[in-house]
Structure formats: C-alpha cells, structure tokens
Recover the amino acids of this structure.
C-alpha cells in the first residue's frame, strides 16, 4: 500500500530544520504484515530526543530510515499466527520488541532482548524483514516502529494492547517517555516510600520520572535543569525543590538543601555533564541511575575509591527496566486514577508536514512532548 512517511536520508543537517528539512515527508510503499506481524493505522506519534539524536548523527543508524518510535494506533490487519489481537484494537508501540526466549527474556528482562538489539541496530523488524520501500529500494525502520507515518507494519512483539477509551495522543507517550522515566524510578531504582530523589534533565522522560517519584511516595523530589520554565513545570507536577543547573554552585546548593545529597539521583538528559551532576548530588550509600543515552563516544570518569568508601551504586536503565505488557497497563491505570499526570507532558500537537519545525522546538528546549497527529 502507498503511505506518507517521514524519511531521513542523511544525518547532520544544519539547523534550523524547518529550513533544511532533514525529514522528508514522502510517499513510500508499505508491505502487508508477515507472520507474527501487525498492520497498524498510526494515530499519534511523539517527538523524542532519541529521534533527534538520529537526525543530528549522535546515534548512527542505517540510512535511509523512517523515524518515529513513540506511538499509538489502531490494528488494521493481522499477519499469520497473530491470534491475540483483532482489527480495531488500540495498541501502543514499544521500541524494544521481546523475542520471549533469549537469555534476557527468559530472565524476565525483555528490555535487554538480544535479537531485538540486533534488529534495532540493523533497522529491521524483529524478524529481520523490512516492510518499507520506495521504487524497490528498502527503507529502514527506526527501532522496529517507523511511526512517523500513516500506517506501520510492526512485529506483534512491539505492541501492547490498551483500552480503546484512552486517547491515542496520550497513549503514545506511554511507549517511551512514561516507560523510561517512571520505570527508571520504580523498576531500576525501586524507590521506596519516604526516599529522597533528584531528577537531572527535565525533558519528557525526566518529567515522567518526577511523576514516577511522586507516585512511588518519595518525600523529596529535587528537579535540576537549565530551563526555568521546565523547573516550574516540574514543581507543578510534584517536585519539592528546583535548581538551575546553569548555576556554578548548583551541586553545592542541592547537597546543602538535602543535607549531603539524595538517596536516588536520575540522569535523564543524555549528557556527561548531567551525569556528573547527578553523581555528585547522590549521598553516601546512594544510587545514581542513568537513562539518558549520550552519544556513543561519550565517557565519564569515576573514582573507584569513592565507589568503595562511600558504597555508591551506579546503574544503567534502558526503557525503564520494563516488562511492557505488565507496566503499560499499570501506568495507564495510575494515570486514570490521577496519580500520573501524563497528559501534562504534552506541549503541543503537529501535523506530519510540521515535523521538522517540531524538532527545532525540541532541540531548543521549548517543548517537552509534541505529538504528531496522523488520524
């Protein structure tokens, strides 16, 4: 079938993207679903820094590639062997499919699925297939989703069914921002009621972590960012303290306010500087969690003596150490109960043709989560 999709053919375009237009909205061919696959009519797709890092070249991916990985839509058709979904079901896309049988999946850690990592790096679906093409030439899928498009053919294992009453624009955010941010708090760190926390980097994922810390019952939620606007939003979402990371004495002020640092600090900005800040504001015996995905060449230095003498823990968190089929329904329920204000992460909607300008706003820090509405 012929569809419109946002395709990236070259990385590293100059900004502003509204002028250079690195994403080209093109008519492409989408093949029907194969065995174990599903055709989804995309309803909404969020703009995430992970997409931006592909556009600017920070995260190398095979080109050309159809972008978009945080999305929700409606099942249109089922491939052979898919019996647990039906046409008309609403689904959220998950950017790490789970094969269900590799060592990581067998241990209950589908976020680390090994075949999924191989497929995502290659730009294919979990099966190794590419269902997008133009003039007979294949087009790669970003993270098995390629969701900046009218329709997407994806692996059944990239989908979680959700209630049809949940608006698709809100449902989309659960597939990345909410899974990653809330999951880092409740799954990776396992924050307990009454704990002290800090979140460094207040994009969509960081603000979702603020929501997660509040839902987990943290008594102290320190928000750290370069944007005063985002700090204000974090306070309105449940943060108890706000500090501008641009201040030369930011670390000292946080440590003083928290009497030596917090028990759990989360780095969600994707920069070494942000990680160093998170580590420095973690107290003795505390845990620093990073989920920000900096460029592959980025490194940081830690003192092993400090790790030992202060019994520090540093943990990575990928897609919130999640089990999507378990966690997405739970988080949706919390949202409906008023305990996760996911809708407040949305700062605007776009058409597919406005997508390049949307990434300008994301890069400039003027948006948290913008959502492309596709139906």
């Amino acid at each position: 079938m012929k569809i419109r999709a946002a395709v990236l053919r070259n990385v590293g375009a100059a900004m502003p993207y509204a002028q250079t237009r690195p994403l080209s909205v093109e008519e492409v061919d989408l093949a029907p679903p194969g065995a174990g696959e599903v055709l989804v009519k995309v309803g909404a797709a969020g703009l995430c820094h992970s997409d931006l890092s592909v556009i600017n070249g920070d995260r190398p991916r095979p080109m050309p590639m159809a972008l978009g990985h945080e999305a929700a839509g409606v099942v249109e058709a089922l491939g052979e062997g898919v019996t647990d979904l039906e046409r008309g079901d609403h689904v959220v896309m998950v950017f790490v499919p789970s094969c269900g049988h590799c060592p990581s999946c067998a241990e209950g850690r589908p976020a680390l699925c090994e075949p999924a990592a191989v497929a995502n790096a290659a730009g294919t679906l979990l099966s190794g297939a590419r269902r997008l093409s133009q003039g007979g030439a294949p087009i790669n899928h970003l993270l098995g989703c390629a969701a900046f498009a009218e329709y997407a053919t994806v692996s059944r294992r990239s989908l979680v069914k959700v209630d049809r009453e949940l608006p698709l624009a809100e449902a989309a955010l659960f597939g990345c921002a909410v899974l990653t941010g809330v999951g880092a708090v409740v799954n990776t760190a396992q924050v307990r009621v009454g704990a002290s926390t800090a979140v460094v980097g207040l994009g969509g994922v960081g603000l979702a972590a603020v929501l997660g810390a509040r839902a987990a019952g943290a008594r102290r939620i320190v928000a750290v960012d370069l944007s005063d606007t985002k700090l204000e939003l974090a306070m309105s979402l449940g943060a108890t303290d706000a500090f501008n990371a641009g201040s030369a004495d930011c670390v000292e002020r946080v440590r003083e306010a928290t009497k030596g640092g917090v028990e759990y600090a989360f780095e969600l900005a994707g920069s070494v500087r942000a990680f160093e800040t998170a580590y420095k504001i973690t107290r003795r015996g505390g845990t620093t969690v990073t989920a920000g995905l900096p460029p592959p060449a980025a490194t940081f230095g830690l003192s092993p003596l400090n790790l030992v003498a202060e019994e520090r823990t540093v943990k990575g968190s990928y897609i919130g150490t999640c089990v999507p089929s378990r966690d997405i329904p739970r988080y949706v329920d919390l949202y409906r109960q008023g305990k996760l204000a996911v809708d407040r992460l949305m700062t605007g909607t776009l058409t597919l043709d406005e997508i390049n300008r949307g990434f300008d706003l994301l890069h400039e820090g003027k948006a948290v989560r913008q959502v492309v509405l596709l139906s």
